[in-house]
Amino acid sequence: MAAVSSPITPRYVLYCDACGMPPEYCAYSPDFETHCVPWLKTNHPRTFTKLFGNKSVTATADDADNAEGGGESTPPEPTEPWTTRERLVAFYTEYMPEKLDGIDAILEKYEGKEDKLFVALVKKYGPEPEDPYYAATSDNDNDDNDEEDIAKKLRGIDVAGSKKNKRRGAAAKMEKKVDTRVIVQKISRNRKKAVTHVVGMDTVPGIKLKDVSKALSKRFAGSSSVKDKEIIVQGDHLEDVAEMIVNKFGVSADMVFLDLDGEFVSFG
After folding, report:
1. Is the pTM higher than 0.70?
2. Residue 15 near residue 21 (C-beta atoms within 8 A)
3. Which residue in 162, 168, 223, 229 sits closest to 198, CA to CA?
4. Are the CB atoms for 253 and 244 separated by under 8 Å?
């Protein structure tokens, strides 16, 4: 009787979109400095750091002239967030590259339970790598004046006990505490995708934005970043984020507001 061979598990290999080779061999490409480096830094920054360190790779004068002449020196910004598979590949590339060949088996095993999978991975290994799509779109928000609009609305919220007159000494310190206001807002991306924005955590005494961002990333098993005093969390977690701000960071519920279709509603 013929021996039954075991099924072969496909092995995942990361290839550079600029030269078509694995990142380990990008340095041998003639377009390494002008094409491979920008692509790797944008899409797989941690892989780039592991392979090439923090050194700055500068293009030659001829390459720069070619870029000015119409050659594409930087890759286009991503138009879609990572798929579940891409998120898992990025995570394993960061923490367990030796297990990349088992990605498909893991996805099949945890089909329908992907959120629980990422929660367990983040808890065991560390924060999830940031999706370059959300990093790019958060920067583009400045073009839409979203931050300015939120800031204007934030200033327009009446807080009980606030005073317009300036005070000195102990009264000034008390007034500073009263002026703490935090807004939690959901911004939709491409209809089905969304990110949660948190504005005003810098007004909470003794709070560091990076610590809050790290805690939110761990809690929701997704990327979280700080941009211009604003915390951006991947996914729709409007009320859960507000609840965490109150329970974990000690902010009064009366000082936390939800942005519901442009109307600010107190979480208290």
Report:
1. no
2. yes
3. 229
4. no
